[in-house]
Amino acid sequence: MFAIMEKELLAPGIHRLEVLAPLVASKAKAGNFVMVRVHSGGERIPFTIAGNNPKAGTIMLVVQEAGKSTKAIGALQAGDTLLDVVGPLGTPTHIEPVKSLVGVCGGIGVAPTLPLLKAFRAKGTEIVTIMGARNKDLFILRDEVEAVSDEVIYVTDDGSFGAQGLVTDALTQLLEEGRKFDQAIAIGPARMMQATCKVTEYYGVPTIVSLNAIMVDGTGMCGACRVTVGGETKFTCVEGPDFDGHKVDFEELILRQAFYREEERGGENCQCHSS
Ligand SMILES: Cc1cc2nc3c(=O)[nH]c(=O)nc-3n(C[C@H](O)[C@H](O)[C@H](O)COP(=O)(O)OP(=O)(O)OC[C@H]3O[C@@H](n4cnc5c(N)ncnc54)[C@H](O)[C@@H]3O)c2cc1C
Ligand code: FES
Known about the structure:
By secondary structure, the protein is α/β, with parallel strands linked by helices.
C-alpha cells in the first residue's frame, strides 16, 4: 500500500498527489513514469513522475480525471492509499547539455514537461516555456514552471490569459523573430505534439516528445503501447515514453489511442476483463 501524504486540487478535475514511495523516489529520473493500481480489481494506469523528493520518500503525481480509474483517484483524500505504485518505468530522457531550449506544453502535458525542464536547467540551459490551455482556469504548476524557466509565454484558446491562440502560434512567432533554440520539448495531446513537431522540423530544431500510448502492463510484455518511430516498431513503456518527435508516426499513434475505446467504456465487445 502506498499512502497519499498530500492532495491538492490544481484546476477543475486535476489533482496533485504526493505519494509515499521511497524506493521509487530514490531512483526516479526525468522521463520515468509509474503504473498505479487503485484497488485489486482495477486496471494499471500510467502516470509520469512529475517530481520526486528522495529525502521525504515521496513522488509527485498529477492526475487529470479522464475516466473511471482517474476519477477513482480524484475521489481519494490525503491519508488514503493506492494499492500499487510500480516504477520507475521507462527509459529516462537523454539530457544533452544545450545552450537554449524551448518547452512547449499543452494542458496536463505540463506535468511530464516539468521534470525535463528541471533536468535541462540543472545543466545550465536557458529555457523559454510556452504553456497553452483552453482557458485561464486550466493552467497548472505555473510557479514551478516559472521557477525553472527564463521566460514563460502563456496562450489560451479563448484569450482569457496571455495571448489568444495555440502554442504553435507562439512558437512560430518566436522562431520567425529569429530566436534560436538548440532543443525543443513538446508534450501534450498527440495532435498538439504533431503540430509542434511540424513547426520545429521546418526550423530545424530537434524535438523530444513524450508519447501517451495506451499501456496495459507497462513492462514490455503485451505490445499494447507499440508505436512506429523512424520506421521501426518501439514499445513506448520500455523504449520511451520520450522519442525524437520528427520520427514519430503520429497518425498511427492517434489511431491506436482510439483502438481500445470499447474496452475503456466496458462495452459488450470488451474482452479486457474476461479472464
Ligand atoms: C507514459 C504515460 C504517462 C502519463 N502520465 C499522465 C499523468 O502524469 N497524468 C495524467 O493525468 N495522465 C497521464 N497519462 C494518461 C493516463 O494514463 C490516462 O488518462 C488514464 O489511463 C485514463 O484512465 P481512466 O480509466 O481514468 O480513463 P479511460 O476512460 O479508461 O480513458 C480515458 C482516456 O485515457 C487514455 N487511456 C486510457 N487507458 C489508458 C492506458 N492504460 N494507458 C494510457 N492511456 C490510457 C485514453 O486516451 C482514453 O481515451 C499518461 C499516459 C502515459 C502513457
Ligand atoms: S504496455 Fe505492454 S508492452 Fe508496453
